[in-house]
Amino acid sequence: MLILLMIFVVGLNVCGHVFLKVGINQVGGYDQKPIMQFAVSAISNPFVLIGLAGYVSSVAGYIAVLSKTQLSIAYPILMSTGYAIVVLISFLWLKEPFNLLKWVGIVLIFLGVVLVSIKA
Fold it and tell me: What mean pLDDT do residues 30-35 have?
């Protein structure tokens, strides 16, 4: 059950970040318009709202995960998995640059998580 909850939390977190990025890409940068106009545009964009809902929901799920396991295990597993998935989605869907160095970084992060997760 804990593993399913962790997968769900990672999914919500990743969706939150990706939808926030898609929404902000539509809104434009905060340096392109007055800050209040930017804020109103951002909070009225449906992708930003979905992203915020996903992110806030992931925090609620993260709290539930923390009630069942150690922080030193939950945090690295959830955050590194989410990071790797966000990088891949950024490359595949958002067409952001991706190179060999990022692949190496993701592999090293996962190796670190495996080492942290091994019970001594």
Answer: 86
